[in-house]
Design goal:
With 521 residues, the chain is mainly alpha-helical. The chain is built from 19 helices and five strands. Strands 3-4-5 form a three-stranded antiparallel beta sheet, with no helix packed on it. Helix 9 packs across helix 10 and helix 15 packs antiparallel against helix 17. The longest helix is centred in the first third of the chain and has 29 residues.
């Protein structure tokens, strides 16, 4: 694998280094912001309400989340030496820590509880920064059978998010109405139609255009509310230690360390996933740089009144659906997020986009992530059946928190944090089972699995006589070691075909196929 470097000039062939210009980078970047905006503001809203903050104080948490998330996104995508994976990864506040932070607030409510959270995030993130190079070594445990499971699980676990958006706000009387779901379906249809048009530019902007058109239609139907846009400050810079200096409590720090480990697992999975989708090289050095960027951003975050940062999985789907792999597009998204953090009025405009509109677009985005994972799993060898066990159990473990969110509620909080995330549960299970079945030879023997996908095969020796070392079968065609296709004809015509080739009557494979009407084995 290629090593990560920080010089674009030295790596001209990496697809993520394509530069599309300022205008297109910002336009495509806005798609990323709209895709993840609901997620990035959800955590500060949840924590602000749990801490009993007033709307102005909660707004401070939201603005800080956007501001730091934007800076973290720029660092992750552009990169400096040892910091940043230089991949199209959007950063934002991690959901993994919500349960732990709510537990901290139950023990220490109000602004003091926030200070305890900030102290725990600061210490745990600093520890994560130190552990990043060692944690990154797990890349060798992410072969296709593992990465395919992780990518598929990312997509599948995000589908309920899109469904929730499609239903509308939970506290709204129209929640789950036919009108909301119809608006989501209309947006989904727009994405499909715009993706089908002949213009590449429109097709790549299909998500953004569908969201804009869907919002306009919703406004005309009276289903979009922009009345709050003019309320509150227009400009505001995040003030460090707005709620006071961090407080350091051992139990809170311990809980947050577990959150950081889960966050690093999810970020590693996202780096592997986006590398797979972008068809670019990802090695342990690149993962370490990405994790260090995650952790340094998370360490700075509490100083500016926000929480742990991580790569957002939903934006991986946008890379897959648009085919735009440029990291500079994501850097443009980071710039937009910083501006939104400094101009709360723009943030309120984006926040006014109806959630059913986002839900319709999300169905395409998140389904695309899952399909990318299925494509990766399609290349896995299932003949022994052991890989089938890895995929089956890992996917099931990843789906348990999705289909039964209360499954682990009787377990200790650290178990809920680790296994309550479908992504981390699937990733940990796939890595451990891959080690057990494919790395450790003890107790394993060929064909020992009762889950074997195929019975033993028997091949006639006579069919091997004409083959040479290096000949391979690719998509039903026999390819020689020199890269040229080998003609395959019916058994009783082989000798005749060989004579006509030797006499010069037939000079290429295409002629043989046309003459003998046998272009497949």
């Amino acid at each position: 694998m290629k090593n990560c470097t920080t010089s674009v000039a030295n790596t001209p062939h990496r697809p993520e280094d394509e530069y599309l210009g300022v205008g297109r980078s910002l336009a495509y970047g806005l798609q990323h912001v709209l895709t993840m905006y609901g997620g990035v503001i959800a955590v500060p809203l949840i924590i602000g309400n749990a801490a009993g903050l007033d709307p102005t104080q909660t707004g401070i948490l939201v603005a800080a989340a956007l501001f730091i998330g934007g800076l973290a996104t720029i660092l992750q995508s552009i990169g400096v030496p040892f910091l940043g994976a230089q991949l199209p990864l959007v950063q934002g506040v991690s959901f993994a820590g919500v349960a732990t932070m709510l537990t901290i607030l139950q023990g220490t409510p109000g602004e003091e509880g926030l200070r305890v959270i900030f102290g725990a995030v600061l210490v745990a993130s600093a520890l994560g920064f130190v552990l990043a190079p060692f944690f990154a070594k797990i890349i060798r445990f992410f072969p296709p059978v593992v990465s395919g499971v992780v990518i598929t699980t990312i997509g599948v676990t995000l589908v309920p998010v899109a469904a929730g958006w499609s239903l509308g706000p939970a506290n709204d009387p129209s929640h789950g109405s036919v009108a909301n779901i119809g608006l989501a379906a209309f947006t989904l249809l727009l994405v499909l139609l715009l993706s089908k048009v002949g213009s590449a530019a429109i097709s790549r902007l299909s998500i953004l255009l569908a969201i804009v058109i869907g919002t306009v239609v919703a406004a005309l139907l009276g289903r979009a509310n922009f009345s709050d846009v003019g309320e509150g400050p227009v400009v505001g810079f995040p003030v460090p230690f707005e709620f006071g200096t961090p407080l350091f409590v051992a139990s809170a720090i311990l809980g947050m360390v577990i959150v950081i480990i889960v966050t690093m697992t999810e970020t590693t999975a996202d780096i592997v996933a986006v590398g797979e989708i972008a068809e670019t090289s990802v090695d342990s050095k690149r993962i370490a740089s990405g994790l260090r960027a995650d952790m340094i951003s998370s360490s700075v975050a509490p100083l500016f009144n926000t929480f742990t940062q991580t790569a957002f999985a939903q934006n991986v789907g946008l890379v897959a659906i648009t085919g735009i792999r440029s990291r500079f597009v994501v850097a443009g998204a980071g710039v937009i997020m910083v501006v939104l953090g400094l101009l709360p009025v723009l943030g309120r405009v984006v926040a006014a986009v109806p959630s059913p509109v986002l839900g319709g677009a999300g169905i395409v985005l998140f389904g695309t992530v899952a399909s990318s994972g299925i494509r990766t799993l399609g290349g896995v060898d299932y003949r022994s059946g052991l890989n089938l066990v890895v995929v089956a159990v890992s996917l099931a473990m990843g789906l348990i928190p999705v289909v039964s969110p209360t499954f682990y509620e009787q377990f200790p909080s650290w178990v809920q944090v680790v296994l309550g995330s479908g992504i981390s549960a699937a990733a940990l299970t796939a890595v451990l089972l891959n080690i057990l079945f494919n790395e450790l030879s003890w107790g394993s023997r060929p064909g020992s699995s009762t889950f074997a996908a195929y019975p033993p095969r028997v091949f006639p020796r006579s069919l091997l006589r004409g083959l040479q070392e290096g000949d391979t079968l690719v998509k039903g065609r026999l390819i020689g070691a020199d890269g040229q296709e080998i003609a395959v004809v019916d058994d009783h015509l082989v000798e005749e075909a060989r004579r006509r080739v030797e006499s010069g009557e037939l000079t290429d494979t295409g002629q043989i196929h046309r003459v003998y009407k046998s272009d497949t084995p």
